[in-house]
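Table S2 (text version). Query chain:
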Amino acid sequence: MSERSISLSLPFIQPAQAQKHITHNEAISTLDTLVQLTVISATSTNAPTDAELGDSYIIPAAANGDWADHADDVATKVEGGWRFATPNLGWQGYVQDQAIVMLFTDQGWGPALGALNNLPELGIGTTADATNPFSAKLNRALWTATEAANGGTGDVVQALNKETSSDDAGFTFQTGYATHAVFGSFGSDTVRLATTTDGTTFKDAFEVDAPSGVLVQPNLPRFRASTNFDNLAAEATWVKVAINQTEFNDQGVFDPATSLFTAPLDGTYAFGGFLAFKRDITSNVRLRGRFVKNGTDEVAGSSNELASQPTHNLTGLGLHTLVHLTAGDTVELQGYFRLGSGYFKADNSVFWGYKIG
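Corresponding structure-token output:
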């Protein structure tokens, strides 16, 4: 018959053993120490001379004196000295001076949380799976820096590292687990913010070119257009200039058939234009221009008149303005001649605009 138990090495009472109470009491005392193990310290290398009966310690490496050659053992003060218990894998104990739980593994004693390495899956408030090996179901999360006064640097940095430039690193924003936006470097090192309505086709709101740092807005509503014929305007008559050919027309915001810009979204828009002068009967005219909203409303502050008599085929009037529009509002470029009729010259009379906010 074995003299001690396998896990805790508790002494067994042997057949025909004298003074059985000694063996029994030793087993009870050992259980009293190891069950719900609490130790005073795991860093003391010398047995304390003022230890009281029942005080326990985890012995670190390079211990001295009575604790020499007992690294990792649990030492408990008993009458006449120290009792040592050699730990098995999985033993745990609360360390009072560090206020932590320590776990014994094949690497020795260490913080129990330190054993949470190389976990295949981890779920917080929910179940993780192979697709999402780390999952958390919560309402708020906080990352805060360890202050310099507490041994930290005061910084807090989160890194997303991908293997190659053509891989993805970023954030996916979902509603009901359906993707509506992504932010990060997807498929290249260019930083992108993109939206989607079907989870497949994405439209970039902006891109930051990796080599140059230049901000690009590939889907910004904007246009530049001109007229390809001389527009005649009678004296003292406001005329919508027939801007009928586009140089660029992102989001299709300008209609060359109607010479109208239509706001796709609520917001602030910038507009500019140039009315090039071509003589009809005389150059002794005065040239005006303006922007008009929804066909009838002059955009406040956009009306202007050339201060001097225009020069045939050489001069003209420049216009620019900012205006807040509601989705569906239209803007057009209008011209006017005082003291005579005239033309808004082909190719050089232009109209442009874009959303700025």
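Notes on Table S2: The longest helix spans residues 20-34. The mean pLDDT is 91.
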